[in-house]
Design a protein that fits this description.
Distance between the termini of chain B: 74 Å
CATH class of the largest domain in chain B: Alpha Beta
Order of helices and strands of chain A: HHHHEEHHHHHHHH
Number of domains of chain B: 2
Structural class of chain B: alpha/beta
Number of helices of chain B: 14
Strand order of the largest sheet of chain B: 2-1-3-4-6
CATH superfamily of the largest domain in chain B: Response regulator
Number of helices of chain A: 12
Number of domains of chain A: 1
CATH architecture of the largest domain in chain B: 3-Layer(aba) Sandwich
CATH topology of the largest domain in chain B: Rossmann fold
Shape of chain B: globular
Oligomer: heterodimer
Helix content of chain A: over 70%
Largest interface: A-B, 39 and 40 residues
Largest sheet of chain B: 5 strands, parallel
Structural class of chain A: mainly alpha
Number of strands of chain A: 2
Radius of gyration of chain A: 19 Å
Shape of chain A: globular
Amino acid sequence: MDFAVVVIVEILYAVASLALIAAGLAVVFGMMRVINLAHGEFLMLGGYTAIVSVKAGINIYVAMLVVAPIVVGAIGLIVERLVIRFLYGRMLDTMLATWGLSLLLTGLVTMIFGNTTTGISTPIAGYRVGAYQLSGYNLFIIAAGFLVMAGILLALRYTRAGLIARGAMQSSDMASGLGHNPQRIYMITFTVGAALSGLAGGILAPLTGLTPTTGGLYVAKAFITVISGGAAVVAGTLSSATLFGTITQVVTLSSTPVWGDVAMLIAAVILLRLLPQGITGRFFSRQV
Amino acid sequence: MTLDRRTFLAGSAAASIAATIAGRAMAQGATIDVASIHDLSGIFDAYGKPMEKAMQLAIDEINAAGGLAGKQVKEISYDTQSQIPLYTQFGQQAALKDKVAVVMGGILSASREAIRPTLKRFNTLYFYNTQYEGGVCDRNIFCTGVAPSQSVEALIPYAMSRWGKKVYILAADYNYGQIISKWVQHYVKLNGGQTLQVDFFPLDVSDFGATIAKIQAAKPDFVVSALVGGAHMSFYRQWAAAGMKAKIPMASTTLGVGNEQIVLTKEEGDGILLAYNWSAEIDTPANKKFLAAWGKKFGADSVKEIHELAVATYQGMMLWAAAVKKAGTPDRMKVIEALETGMSIEGPGGKITVDPKTHHCTLDVVVIEVKDQKLTVVKQIPQVPPLDTQAVCDLKANPNSNIQYEIKI
């Protein structure tokens, strides 16, 4: 019984961390169709921002939840103005540009911090479930993951800004004809996506050490989650994160983390063969 | 004068030719060159940087004492950036271009196997100064670190007598982890214990949540960790964050080698058992002198960076220097023969003697408990021979042997 609780918490944790990793990309790719290959680096920058802030004496929660998204959001804004805005609708060019950007960011961080592992301790103590000890920080990540998803859902569905953003993504000409400026909407959406990545990077930073190449570990998982999820930002990300998180954790628990990752990749291949448009291409297709 | 591209190119070409010629002349004349091939950046730099410093310190001391065979010793340092292909490249460069007298280097067993064949082929003497899984049998290499029959043999019985007989093993998934985990199982069995499970992790795995749950389900008396590198550090962090420290104790064959105990907090590290050749707490004149010299050269703050591999590198360099002195020349074969007389020095980790049959070393072993980010000595075992490699390797009988035995356990 206790072990069942442990397994459920581990699965929820895996789902939440996948959702967090993918959230920023879901907004940028899912809504704007911009393939941002520098997504992993945005997460990495969020992590470094949080660690640097904590070491500078800022409260760890402020560092993770406020400083990291603001800094990475600002970086995203600069990137959008300097690079991305010239490339909307040119998918291959965007890929090339953002890939170059990811190399640039990795190189810059290496120059500043060195190619070493840095980290901070998790701020929450462990707790007990029957005979088992669990990491308290996992619960924080579960809460954060679902709050972020709920936040995106509410923003897109129930706010005027969300409505305009969705409208502009569906038909920018129509949005433009109604007096909105699509360029500005794109800019804001990309910035929000980058800020979400920064937030996720900050939250995940205490759990693992960070190196300048950490982004590479995230980017594949993020793309698999978002593409398998399909067009709907929240429903897609949540459904594919749930599927892959469950598969990974169950296989990891019964064998090793290597097989956990293998199982997730096999599941993704089969899923995309059966549902090329992603999960929300067939199910929950009217959801946000 | 205007500097156009053509004059610049001509000028810099001339300068580089001059530098090359000067370099050649140096190599043949005034100094004995030694190569240091270590990871000075990348995920293994915590291991490599102090090893490089240990080289510099040893060379300073050798030169201050008048050098070797009437010449000063000069270090040529290569940074392999934690990338195995660079080992192959720099190994060739050291042997063929820089023509060094000896190469000190290699950290992971994978990196050693990347340069060992190259150095053997080009007849360049090689010192591997790292604790490793044992079994290398090659007359061109000297291994100065502790092997499993020295460290694991001390660690496992001590840990079992303290905590119990059921063991769960976590190891890095490459040759070191695969082989050392077999050794741990061997010594667990030999002491009447039971290995519940062995799990291997690729070097980039950094999320151990599910593993920690699995370990609890298996209910071992203690955990043995042979995890390696920066990403695996998060295991100790997540283990402590889950509050496991108080429930299941831990021994490790790798922690502390890169001074992980000062990267981890007191709460994360305290109580973990280790067994190595050296600890800063060893109370001998040789160790005190070494610590003082290090502090003087690199600053008092740097003393806490010293680790097992740095000490092994220092001792390796000093062994080589003693052999060159005895031989009167840095010539490779003469130095090997001098070392094979059972060359011995008194290092920071105690007396270290070359075993002529295996080119491994007989040395002192200390069992260590991490306490307040320090390596506290809890048990000392003097002069342990490299029994594991001795069981399979005899370079006196087979001087042309060139393999790493997988020791049957």
